[in-house]
Structures are given as C-alpha cells and as structure tokens.
Amino acid sequence: MVMPNKSVVGVVISIAALITLPNIPSVAEQTTEYRDTQIKPVETDDVQRKQWSLSTAEWSRYQTLMKGIRGSISPANISPIEVLGTHARNDQERKKYAELWAQMRFEDAERILAFQAAYNEAFRKLYGDVQLIDINKIRPHNSAQTISSITADSRLLVFLKVDKCYECKQLVRRVLDTRSLNKNQIDVYFVDTKPGRDDEKIKKWVIDLGIDPSRLKSGKITLNHDRGNLLKITHKIDQAIPVVFKMNADSLTALKL
C-alpha cells in the first residue's frame, strides 16, 4: 500500500479547513452572544449617564433631543447638561442645569489648574529657570500686523492683567471666538500675578471667560505668570495692556486685534 505524501496531505487538510462551513452555534451560545451585544451599549450609556450626574429619564431625554435639531447644529462635544439646559421645559429646570453646569465647570477648572501648577513645579524641579520660549533669541518686528497675517504655525502670546481689565477680557474673547485661530497655540501671560499668590484669581478668570476646558487640557491654551517676559520683548516699563504678539520661527510681531 502506497502511503500518501505528507506534504500533499497537509495541503488537502489546509484546503479543507478553508472550505469547511463554520460551526453553527448552539441555541445557548447564540443567546449568550446576543445578550453580550445588547448589554454593552446599555452599560456604556449607564456609565456616561452617571458621569454627568443624570437620572435614567434625563439621559433618555438628552438622547432624544440629540436626534433632533440640537444634534444637527451643535458641536460634537456639546455636553448633556448644556443640551438639557438649552431645552429646559421651565425656569426651575433651566436653573437646575445651569447650576449643575457651573459646578462641573468650576471643579474641572480646579483640576486643570492644579495639574498646571504641578506641571510648573515639575518643570522647575527638572530644568530650573529655563524658559520654554527664549524671548532673547526672538527677533522682534517693529511694525504691527493684522489677524490675516496669522498662519497655521503661528503661536500667539497674549499679555494681560487678571485684575480690573475689561479690555483684557474683551481681547481674549475676540481671540477665542475667532474660528481661524482654533488650532493655533495660545499662551496667556498675566503681568500682574505671582505664582502661588494669585492662583485663585486665575481660576476665577478662567471660569468667568468660559474658556473651553479641552483646549486647556490639550495644551492649546496655556496660562502663565509673565515673569518679566513682556519687558524683554518691548523694553518698555509702561507697555499698554493688553497686547498680543504673533510668533513664527525666530520672529515676533505685534498684532492689531
């Protein structure tokens, strides 16, 4: 009797494995698989609902609202609290969501600023007084430019006061509300603050302006104590505040906004 060649047998087995129909799961297996696919979305929704401190009914209403005009015209990252507050059915409901949103924004600002302080401390510990942006190496331009001169790689340095400066808040709002600047790095420098002493003032300033926490978390917006940087740039002790500079590579230009 001639034994079949092992390599041929291996090929036959491999081909057979490829064309063999998949095993049909038993009823119990089908039920288990079905349940798994049904439970996971519910569990995910439940986790998200609890993170936003909402009841099951509130979460359901939020999801319904997002299937209508709110979901079609609002940014993708709009919060459930904002959706429910915008579509509040009475003043009491509107006040409830407004207070909840204010509380969440305040707590989030505290977390962000606490991490920023920890980062600053870690940076000083590791690198001392080394500046991330060495102002001394940047060549300033004498003529101011407009917002149209800002490119994708431009970095904005905004110098302002945290105390009693209406113009400062107006300027920051203009910068933050300009869509073309959403992807630019924005570094805010407070000329009237000191580390440790004025952290609460900065926290309140962030909340009052309603700065997007995601832009702070991502580092697209940074909050810094000036530490004499403005004087290094302008060489003026009476520089008008607020003032914005555009930084590209090794050049620094004042902006008219």
Fold and architecture overview:
By secondary structure, the chain is an alpha/beta fold. The protein has helices at residues 6-19, 27-51, 56-65, 69-73, 80-86, 91-127, 166-177, 199-209, 213-217, 229-234; strands at residues 139-146, 155-160, 185-190, 221-225, 243-248, 251-256. Strands 1-6-5-2-3-4 form a six-stranded mixed beta sheet. Helix 7 links the parallel strand 2 and strand 3 (185-190). Helix 5 (80-86) packs antiparallel against helix 6 (91-127) and helix 6 (91-127) crosses helix 8. The longest helix has 37 residues, at 91-127.
Mean pLDDT: 77
Number of helices: 10
Query: What is the top-level CATH class of the domain at 135-256?
Result: Alpha Beta
The CATH architecture of the domain at 135-256: 3-Layer(aba) Sandwich
Summarize the model shown.
It is built from ten helices and six strands. The protein has 257 residues and is an alpha/beta fold.
Fill in the keyword field for this structure.
257 residues, alpha/beta, Glutaredoxin, 6 strands
